[in-house]
Amino acid sequence: MEDLEFIKILILRLFLACLVGVIIGLEREFKGKFAGIRTHTIVALGAALAMIVSKYGFSDSSHYDAERIAAQIVSGIGFLGGGLIFIKKDYISGLTTAAGIWTTAIIAMSIGAGMYIIGICSSILILILQLFLKEEFGIFSFIKRPYTIDIVLDNPMSIEKIYKYFKKENIKFSEKSINYRDDKLILEVQYHNKNENELIGIINFLRENRRVFKFSLD
User: Fold this and answer.
1) For residue 51, which of 15, 61, 95, 168 sits 20 to 30 Å off, Cα-Cα?
2) What is the pLDDT of residues 190-200, one digit of tens each?
3) What architecture does CATH give domain 144-215?
4) What are the residue boundaries of the structural domains of the chain, listed by start?
């Protein structure tokens, strides 16, 4: 029979791994991401359990290799990350969440292996990175993601009016493409956002422009 104290230690590792998953997933949940608390917690629990099995489950065999299961966790968790990444035109979303899922699994593996301090410190680090290395606030708040604006117009003369507005307001932009579709002119520009007020101003200008049939912003 397995030592009761040893079993308690393993169960503690599983609970600690789940706690790490909850904490990391909570930050993603608050941001409205698809992979939130449940996904991160289940991944953490599974990774920790697999690490425990890898380290202790086959210790009575002379040919067992603990590294093989651990390696499979690292590569196998990629299928979850792949399902979280979305690509639309030139914009990619889900990379941070996918990376967080992968790192959560590695952290849980370290806890499953009994490396508590490393696992907890890594959890704190990933939370700091998720909270402060982003556009809204933090040490890199000056970096702004460019937006792509698709504008449907009635004639080429309308493009000049839009460009005049951008230049008048000192808005940084670059023309990506001009296409005709269904007797309509589709202008695609890339816009580098300065602040929220500037973005609201562009939206209001396009809404009030009678030559603009519709527009979208990604």
Assistant:
1) 95
2) 877 667 778 78
3) 2-Layer Sandwich (3.30)
4) 1-141, 144-215
